[in-house]
Amino acid sequence: MVRHRRRGEPAAVRPRILSSTPLPHAPMGRRIVGMSTGEPFPALTLRELQERIRSLFGRKDSRRGVEGTFMWFMEEVGELAAALRDPDSARDNLAGEFADVLAWLATLANIANVDLNAAIRAKYGSGCPKCQATPCACGTAKP
Ligand SMILES: [Mg+2]
Ligand SMILES: [Zn+2]
Description:
With 143 residues, this protein is mainly alpha-helical. It has a single domain, classed as MazG-like (Helix Hairpins). Helix content is 49%, strand content 4%. The chain is built from 3 helices and 2 strands, in the order E-E-H-H-H. The protein has a two-stranded antiparallel sheet. Strand 1 (31-33) and strand 2 form a beta hairpin. Helix 1 (46-85) crosses helix 2. The protein is globular. Magnesium ion is lined by residues 4, 76, 79, 97, 100.
């Protein structure tokens, strides 16, 4: 994973790739395969993701606030776009950019006191938000 420039923040604070070390409370039943190592590791729930990011960066994140954090989030979205467009981008780098975007989204949710698990369940947990069908049958999905 290529380390990116981190304006205004010490480098040690921002390796945003989630650790593949199993969390002590992670359920052991669900396993997915790690992209770089091929080693299986327990899947994170959305709630665990938010807790992980909060324990890693929570203090600093709350000091920075929503506006500053949103700028970092958008910068990571830009890095993801660049990695998706780059045919020479290494697989690990692409995966790392997805991880960055997700981690910064979790940070934003933490600061804004949004429970991502509850939010995604409420909106998409029982079908299309508009027609309730799975798959969507109303044409709400963007072309
Ligand atoms: Mg990035
Ligand atoms: Zn629909």
